[in-house]
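seq as requested:
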Amino acid sequence: MRTTIDRAGRVVIPKALRDLAGLGVGGPVEIEFVDGRISIAPPVAATGLGDAYGLAVLVCADAGPVTAEDVRRVQDSVRGR
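struct tokens:
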């Protein structure tokens, strides 16, 4: 796809590409210049291992607490509901 750069240096990313990349309105993006190309991508969440009740858990620095509704939504999605 071809687009243009406006006077302020802004580029409109077509909706189809934003959807494929998981980019939302107002969401953060990482921009890099790699091998002669400009790369735009959603940022990678900072993660690490933590300890919860003596168990190793994956900790995401950017995530809030998981709610019961979050769990139900994932369960329903996995179960095809």
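DSSP finds two helices and four strands in the chain.
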